[in-house]
Design brief:
Chain lengths: 361, 335, 361, 335
C-alpha cells in the first residue's frame, strides 16, 4: 500500500551543512546551548556506563546517538509544560532542570531522585512501555480544563508505538483536542526488534491518522529540526490547536542497555553508516563553520562537564541510602494502621543500617 | 432527608463532591448524556457540564491512564468502569502507576483518584457482568479497596474515597443498587476508610462479609436468631488496608467465624481474613473457620446463575456447623 | 486535517436501484439467499425482543438495521473460514450454520449453545469489547503456518475500534501478513456515544493506515456491497495478500440493548432519515424490480420463518437446563481433585433440580 | 545427562516440546534472534525456524490474544512475557478468555497454552522487574498456576504445562535462573501438575513455599537442623488447583506451619494456604500459622531492595517461634 504523505523536516545535514534556512527561534544562544547540553548528555552517558561496569549503578540504558532528540525536545518545551519521559530520557530531564545528583539517585535505584526540585509537574520515567502516554493526555486535559496555556509532551520509542496505550492516548487526545505532543524516538530498535518488523506502517508518524491528528517526521539527528518541529507542535497545542505526533528518526548507536549485547542481533555494517549521521559532531561542524564554536570552547566545556560529573559521582558515593522505613512512608499519604506492624519490624531488622552507607551489592 | 437507593446514594455523593470541589471530575463510558448504564451519574452532566462529567471513548486502559495524569495535575478524577468484568485492561495502570506514583516520587506527585465499578452477580446479566474480583485489587499495595453495602455507607464511603489523598478502588454491589431505600442526609459527612462496621452484635458466631453478600449475611443472622443463636455481623467495607482488630475482637468474643463473599473461594479476600485468624486469633477459635463463597468456576450464565449464588441458607448452615463443633463435622462450606 | 482517500463501495442505493453493475459473484441465487436470510434476521430479532419483554430471555442486543452487514459478510466467508463475532452478531452466526435452537440457548444464557454443530472453528460471541480481534489474528497465523487456504474474519463495532486491542491486532496482522479481515460494523453508536465523539478520525477505515494495511468502506445497508468487499478482502487474505480492514456504514435503528433507552441521548430526526436507507426494503425493491421476488415469495418466506421460530421457541421452553455440576465439568479437561468437594456440594444442593425445568427467574 | 541451570532446563524443555510436537510454537518479545532477554529461548529459532519461534511486536495484550486464537486452532503456543511486571496488559485476555474458552463452549474450543514469565526480585533490576504477583493468577478459575524451584522441576513441570490440555501460567524464579546446576535428563518426562513436592522430611515444623523462596526455605531448614529442629519442606509447585492434602498431612504430623513467599503479605497465596489450615487443619495446629512474606509495599529500588527480601533468618525465626509456642509470642512474621 502506498503510504500517505508525511512532512519531513531537516535543517542541518549529516555533514553539518544547513540544507534550509534555520528557523528564527534557533538563534545563536539557542544553538550553542543545544550543543553544550548534547555534549553533556554524551559525557554523562559515558560516565554512567563506566559506573555500571564497575558495579556502582544497576542496569543502565544508554542514550548514545539520541542527544539531538533529547536536548532538542527539552528546549522546545516551556518551563511549565509537563514531560512524560521513559527510562531512556534522562538527558531531557537534565536539560529540563533536574540535578545531576538527582539523576544519579534515580539511576542508582533510589526513589528520592524522583522528588526533584526541578520541573515539579514532570513525571518520573515510565518503565512499562507506553504507559506514560495516557498520563500525558490526562494532564493535558487538566491544563485545558483550567484554561492554562501549557502543554504536555510524552516521549515514546518505536517499539512503544506498537502498544494499544499509544493508540488509545492519541485517540483520546484527538477527541478532546488536548494540548499534548507525542514525540516518537524512533531509534530503529526495540531491544532486538528492528523497526520494520515492529509494524508494517511505512512511517510511525502516519499512525496519527488513525486518531485523526497531524503527524510529521523530523531528522532526529538534527537538534534544530527536533527543536523546531516539536516547538511548533507544542505552541500549536498551547494555542488550542490540538494534539500531534512527531516522529524523530534517530539511531541507537549502541546496545539497548548494559544488560544487552546487540552483536547477537545487529549487523555492524549499517551501524558504521549510522555513526556518520550522529548528532553531536554534526552540530559542532555547523557551529564551527559559522564561527560560533572554537576548539577552546570545546576544551573548556569538556573540562567543566567532567568536573561536574566527578563531583556528582563523589557526592553520590558519600550519600546514605534512605532509612529502612522509607518503603512504607510514601505509599499512602499517612501510614495506615495495618502497615504499622510491618514497618516496626523492618525498622527493627535494619536498625543498624541507616546511614551506614549503601546496602547495595 | 430523602429516602434513596444505593445507586441513588452514589449519585448524591458524586453530586456533592462535584459541587464542593471544582477539581472533581467524573469520566467513563456513557456517564454523561446517558447518565451511566446504571444511572449512577444521572443529571450530573447537566448540572456540572460535559467538561467535568466526561463521556470517554471506549477504552478502559486509557480511562485509567488519563485519570492518573489528571490526578497528578491536581484534579480529583472519579473514573467509572461500566462493569467490573471490563476493568481488566485498566489493571496495568492500577498496578504500575496508580498505586505507585506517590511512592515513586516520594510524594512529589500523587494519585488521588477513585475507580468506581459495579460488581457481583444476580442481575441475570450475560457473561462478564457478574464478576467479583475485588481480591485482585486487595493484593495491590498502595491503593485502598472499599465496598459499601447500604445507601448510607455508599454515600459516606464514596465521599471519603473522593476526599482521600490515596487512590481508592470503590466497588458497588449492583445487585443491591435498587433493592433497599434508606434515609440519607446529603450533608457531606464522610465515613472512615479504616474501620469495619459492626452491623449487628452477637455472642455465638461472627459473620464477616462485605458488599452484596451483606444482604444474605444479615438474613442468615436473622434466621439464626429465630433458632436462638446470636450472630455478630461485620461489614468489612474497607478491605485494604484491613481493620483486622475489629474482626479479631469479635472472634475473641464469639469464638467462631464464618466469612462470606461472592467471589471464588480460592484466593478470595476471605482467605486473607481466615489466614490472619490462623495467625493472630488461633487461641480464640473454638471451631474451624468457615468460608461461604462463590465456587472456583466461571459464574454460569443467567439460566443457571442462581446455583452459583451465596445464599442465606448456606451461611446459616455454616454458622450452625461452627457453633455445633465439635459435635458436627466442620469445614464443608467450600471444602 | 484532510483525511486520506478511502475507497467506498455501493451497488444498490437506498431506493433499491443499482448504481453500478453488480459483481459477477452476486448472481440471482446469491441475491435471493441474501434477502431470505436478511428477512430471517429481522424476524428473529423481533422474536427475541418479544421473548425478552416477556422475561423468557435476559438482556438482548437487537440487530435491527444491520442485516445487510451481518448476512453479507456471512455469505462472503467460506465454510472453513473462522468467524470471531461480538454479542451483536447472531444473524451472521445463524447464516454460518448454527441452529436456531443453539442461538436460543446462547441468548438464554445457557453455555451449551456455544457447542454448536455448525462451523466448528468459529468462536463464540465476545462480550468484552475488542478482545476477539487478536484471537482472529492468532487463528489466522495458525492457518498460514499450516499452509491452509483459509482466513479469519473478526467483527468489531465502531466503539470497539477505540480500544488498543483493535490497533494491536491490526499491527500484528500487518507484520505477519496474516490472512484476516477486520469488518467494522459502524452503526453510528456505542451505547450512547455517537461515532464522531468516539474518534477524531474522519473514517474508521483509515485506522488501518496505522498498521500499514489496506482499509476501505462499504455501504453497510447494501448487502451486495458488504458481500463483495468483504468477499474480495477474504479472497486476498486466503491468497497470501495479507490483512485488511473493511468499514461498513450501517445504522443502529433501535436501542443498544433491551436494557437501553436511546431516547435519552438520541434525536429522533436523523433516525427517521436513517430508516429510509434500511437494507431489507432496499434489497426487496431491487429484487422485485428485477422480477426476482414476488409478493407470494414474501408471504411464503415469512410463513416459513415464523413457523420455524415458533417451533424453536417451543422447543427451548421444553428444554431442561444443564445439570448443576456442569459449571465444574468444562473448566478443565478433567475436573481437578481440588474442585471435587465443591462439585459434590453443588450436586447435593441442587439434587432435586436437574431436569425440572428452567431455574431462571 | 547434562548439568543445567534452571533457565537452561527451561530451554531444554522448550526445545524438547518443539521437537516432539509440530504444533508447539513460541512467541514473545526478543525470543527469536536474541534468544530472550534471559536466553531462555537461546538457539531455538535457529533450530526450529522463525515461524515457530516468533519475535512479536511489543504488545503484551496482543501476545496473549493471538495465543488464544492459535490455541483454539490447534497450536500449542508458549508465550513469553519478558518480566512479570509487564504481564498486566495480558490479564484481560487471561481472565476473560484463556481461562474461559473451554467452559464457554462446553469443550468445543479450548485454550491449551502456556504463559511463561520470570518473576521475583533480587536481581538488582529497576522498578517493575521484581514482581511476584502469582496470587492474581491463582484467583482466576480455569487456569493452572505453576512455579518451579529447581532445574529438574522446571524441566518436568514445563513439559507437563505444555502438554496439558488446560492453560497454564508458568512463572520462573529469575533469581534462581543461574544459581544452581543440576543433572537433568532430557527424556521428555513430565512431572505431575497436581501434587506438591516434599523436598525434605521433618517432624517439628512444616515450611511451605514455592519458587524463588524455596532457596531460603531450604537454608532455614538447614539452620534449624543445626539447632536440633527438624523441618519438613514442601514445594507447592502447582499453586492452583492446589494439593492441600499434602500440606494438611504434613501439618498433621508437625503441628506447626510457616508459609513463605516473596509476594506481598496481604492477599498473597500464602493466605489461601493459611485459610485452609484454619478450616481443615485447625485441630492439627499446635501453634499459630506464621507467614514470612514480602511486605505490603512496592519493592524498593535496587539500592535498598535487600530490605524487602525474604531471608532464611526471618524464616528460621518464625519456625522457632512456632515451635516454642506458647512459650514465645506468635504471629510476628508479618503482623
Ligand atoms: C510493557 C513492557 N513490555 C516489555 C518491556 C521490556 N522492554 C524494555 S525496553 C523494551 C524495548 C523498547 O523499545 P522502544 O520502545 O523502541 O524504546 P527504546 O528502548 O528503543 O528507547 C522492552 C521490550 C517493558 N519495559 N514494558
Ligand atoms: C471492554 C468493554 N467495555 C465496556 C463494555 C460495555 N459495553 C457493551 S456494548 C458497548 C458499546 C459497544 O459499541 P460498539 O463497539 O460500537 O458496538 P455496538 O454495540 O454498536 O454493536 C459497551 C461500552 C464491554 N462490553 N466491554
Ligand atoms: Mg527504539
Ligand atoms: Mg456501534
Amino acid at each position: 500500500m502506498a503510504g500517505p504523505e508525511i512532512p519531513f523536516t531537516r535543517y542541518i545535514d549529516a555533514e553539518g551543512r544547513a540544507v534550509a534556512a534555520l528557523p528564527n527561534s534557533a538563534g545563536t544562544q539557542v544553538l550553542t546551548r543545544l550543543y553544550r547540553e548534547m555534549v553533556m548528555a554524551r559525557r554523562f552517558d559515558a560516565k554512567m556506563i563506566s559506573l555500571q561496569r564497575t558495579g556502582r549503578i544497576p542496569t543502565y540504558p544508554p542514550t548514545l546517538g539520541q542527544e539531538a532528540f533529547h536536548i532538542g525536545l527539552a528546549h522546545a518545551m516551556a518551563e511549565d509544560d509537563a514531560l512524560f519521559p521513559t527510562y531512556r530520557d534522562m538527558p531531557s530531564q537534565l536539560a529540563r532542570g533536574i540535578t545531576l545528583a538527582e539523576a544519579l539517585l534515580i539511576l542508582g535505584g533510589d526513589e528520592r531522585g524522583n522528588d526533584f526540585a526541578g520541573p515539579r509537574a514532570d513525571f518520573p520515567q515510565a518503565i512499562p512501555i507506553a504507559t506514560q502516554v495516557t498520563h500525558a493526555v490526562g494532564a493535558a486535559y487538566a491544563m485545558k480544563l483550567r484554561g492554562e496555556r501549557r502543554a504536555a509532551l510524552a516521549i515514546i520509542g518505536d517499539g512503544g508505538t506498537s502498544k494499544g496505550d499509544f493508540y488509545e492516548a492519541m485517540n483520546f487526545a484527538g477527541v478532546w483536542r488536548a494540548p499534548v505532543v507525542f514525540a516518537i524516538n524512533n531509534n530503529g530498535w526495540a531491544i532486538s526488534m528492528p523497526r520494520d518488523r515492529q509494524s508494517a506502517a511505512g512511517t510511525l508518524a502516519q499512525k496519527s491518522i488513525a486518531a485523526g491528528i497531524p503527524g510529521e517526521q523530523a531528522d532526529g539527528n538534527d537538534a534544530v529540526a527536533v527543536y523546531d518541529v516539536i516547538g511548533r507542535a507544542l505552541a500549536r497545542a498551547r494555542d488550542g490547536g490540538g494534539p500531534s505526533v512527531v516522529e524523530c528518526l534517530t539511531h541507537r548507536l549502541t546496545d539497548h542497555s548494559t544488560a544487552d549485547d546487540a552483536s547477537r542481533y545487529r549487523d555492524p555494517g549499517p551501524l558504521s553508516e549510522q555513526w556518520k549521521e550522529e548528532p553531536v559532531q554534526r552540530l559542532r561542524t555547523y557551529l564551527s563553520d559559522e564561527g560560533l564554536w572554537s576548539k577552546e570552547d570545546e576544551e573548556q566545556l569538556i573540562a567543566e562537564i567532567d568536573s561536574r560529573l566527578e563531583e556528582t559521582v563523589d557526592g553520590h558515593a558519600a550519600s546514605t541510602p534512605p532509612p529502612p522505613e522509607a518503603m512504607f512512608d510514601h505509599l499512602y499519604a499517612e501510614v495506615p494502621a495495618d502497615l504499622a506492624g510491618q514497618r516496626r519490624q523492618v525498622m527493627a531488622r535494619f536498625a543498624g543500617e541507616t546511614g551506614e552507607g549503601d546496602g547495595h551489592g | 432527608m430523602a429516602e434513596v437507593t444505593l445507586v441513588g446514594a452514589v449519585t448524591l455523593a458524586l453530586g456533592r463532591a462535584l459541587a464542593d470541589d471544582p477539581d472533581v471530575v467524573l469520566l467513563g463510558e456513557d456517564i454523561g448524556v446517558n447518565g451511566g448504564v446504571f444511572r449512577a451519574t444521572e443529571g450530573l452532566r447537566d448540572a456540572f457540564g460535559a467538561d467535568r462529567v466526561i463521556d470517554t471513548p471506549l477504552a478502559e486502559a486509557a480511562i485509567a491512564g488519563v485519570a492518573v495524569g489528571m490526578a497528578a495535575e491536581g484534579l480529583r478524577p472519579v473514573a467509572e468502569f461500566q462493569f467490573m468484568g471490563f476493568i481488566y485492561p485498566a489493571l496495568d495502570q492500577v498496578v504500575s502507576h496508580v498505586s505507585r506514583l506517590r511512592n515513586r516520587t516520594r510524594g512529589r506527585l500523587s494519585c488521588p483518584l477513585v475507580i468506581r465499578a459495579p460488581y457481583g452477580g444476580g442481575i441475570h446479566g450475560p457473561e462478564h457482568h457478574s464478576e467479583s474480583m475485588e481480591a485482585l485489587f486487595a493484593h495491590i499495595p498502595g491503593i485502598r479497596v472499599v465496598i459499601p453495602s447500604s445507601p448510607a455507607r455508599a454515600y459516606g464511603l464514596l465521599l471519603a474515597a473522593i476526599g482521600s489523598p490515596d487512590p481508592v478502588a470503590f466497588f458497588e454491589p449492583k445487585r443491591l443498587y435498587r433493592t433497599v431505600k434508606q434515609e440519607v442526609a446529603d450533608d457531606g459527612e464522610e465515613l472512615p476508610l479504616d474501620l469495619c462496621f459492626v452491623l449487628r452484635e452477637g455472642r455465638d458466631v461472627t459473620l464477616v462479609s462485605w458488599g452484596a453478600s451483606i444482604k444474605e449475611t444479615l438474613e442468615a443472622a436473622e434466621a439464626l436468631d429465630e433458632q436462638g443463636l446470636s450472630a455478630e455481623v461485620i461489614d468489612v467495607a474497607t478491605l485494604t488496608p484491613l481493620d483486622m482488630d475489629s474482626i479479631l475482637a469479635s472472634v475473641e468474643k464469639t469464638g467462631r467465624c464464618v466469612i462470606v463473599h461472592e467471589a471464588p473461594y480460592t484466593g478470595g479476600f476471605g482467605a486473607e481474613i481466615a489466614a490472619r485468624l490462623a495467625e493472630r486469633g488461633l487461641l480464640s477459635l473454638l471451631s474451624p473457620v468457615e468460608r461461604v463463597t462463590g465456587y472456583d468456576v466461571i459464574p454460569p450464565g443467567p439460566r443457571t446463575e442462581h446455583r452459583y449464588a451465596v445464599t442465606a441458607d448456606r451461611i446459616t448452615a455454616a454458622a450452625r456447623r461452627a457453633i455445633a463443633f465439635p459435635d458436627e463435622p466442620a469445614g464443608q462450606a467450600a471444602e
